[in-house]
Amino acid sequence: MRTIADAMTEGRLVDGHRPWPRASVDEGAWRAVASRLGGAGFTLSGLWGEAETAHMAVLDEDAGALGVVSLDCPDGAFASIGAVHAPAIRLERAIFDLFGLRPEGAPDARPWLDHGRWAVRHPLGARSEPAAREAYAFLDAEGEGLHQIAVGPIHAGIIEPGHFRFHVNGETVVRLEQRLGYVHKGVESLMAGADLERAARLAGRTSGDSTVAYQLAFARAAEAALGIDAPPRAHWLRALMAEMERLANHLGDVGAICNDASFAMMLAHCAVLRERALRAAQACFGHRLMRDCIWPGGVSVDLDARGTATLREFVDLLRRRFPPLAALYDGVASLQDRTVGAGVLAPDLARRFGAGGYIGRASDRAFDARRNLAYPPYDELSFSVPTLEEGDVDARVRIRIQEISESLKLIDAILARLPAGDIRAPLPARSGEGVALVEGFRGDVLVWLRLDEAAKVRRCHLRDPSWFQWPLLEAAIANNIVADFPLCNKSFNCSYSGHDL
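and the corresponding structure tokens:
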């Protein structure tokens, strides 16, 4: 089993699954794929369930391919992937909470999304049970002088809820453990039975700051399932929106990270530039976040000459005003003192967890779905994927700064080459399965979709990059001081909502 394609030959290929194959495998093949995850060529890209089936998406980075393997679970159990590959642990806990499928041999059987407040346990499974409330058992840490600090889920700022349990020795963090799931909203349950328009709306609300990435991933998965393609102009408009979303978020993050290091002036200037990005998006596409602008089959709004001029003016503005801010970041010694060497994520951990986006690239993992699994129009565009090896807060800031520059170049190229033509193709009513992996500002977003004969959703799974990034924050904060946690946390900027679904 040298490639993911080899793994597919060990099972029964499922008809109508596009663009990459899905194979139904036996337990031996399931375990064999699991044994290759992490350091042996394969990267776990997703793990999800159905009533009596477990699915695993595997990325073969060397081959530039993705594959899905599925294991039937008639007895309600499957061989744990987390037992041999730690990035799968939280995903398995979520599968058990939602579907009741038990990962046999799992190292952690605690609930994850289920906080004991649902009407029933395993609400999406074949066998639901009465709700059960039990105290959550946080992990222990032993040692002289250790004490605990509990933070959240309610925070001082206007942010999403999450609980952080610190074990500390003086001011030094010995262990951080997260508990999330407070904003679970049942997106995948709401999608069941929905038509494509409603499902696309739901996808775009999975994580508000990544609405373009989610709707793009959903649209591409739906188009793959239906065996159609969007018009060329729609592909280029989608990329334009994706780069605008990246710019707005990176600008906000750079300012917010500096603010957590007590350099508020950077926050003020970056906030102004972020606001200009949002206003440009509003003027061009009718919504500040460009929500509901991307649909299966294409896009819902075109770009006219006035919008093109607006974007060119914004790009010129950002090219004038952002470089001095990047130089200012470099030139403030007190700021560098806080960011350099703080929250280091080792490159081997980033690779093992398949960390995407600026988190992975700051720790020398160069994966970018726009390039490694190129989709239109990125397969026709030239751009750099910056990487650094330091893996600290400073590196994650610098990756964002470099990506801002690359996005400006991409916007220039897209506007110069934007083809004429239709912006949406008709959707046939037929069944199929599709999978898509697209690059959001945090990293790769995966959507897997099954449609019935009327092109309504039977099952849809959405995987945020934060599933593989949140656990790495626990590792990165170890041996830092408690006061640096907000800084490290913001440099990761993982999504609560996208992770909690």
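(Above: one complete record from the training split.) The chain is about 40% helix and 20% strand.
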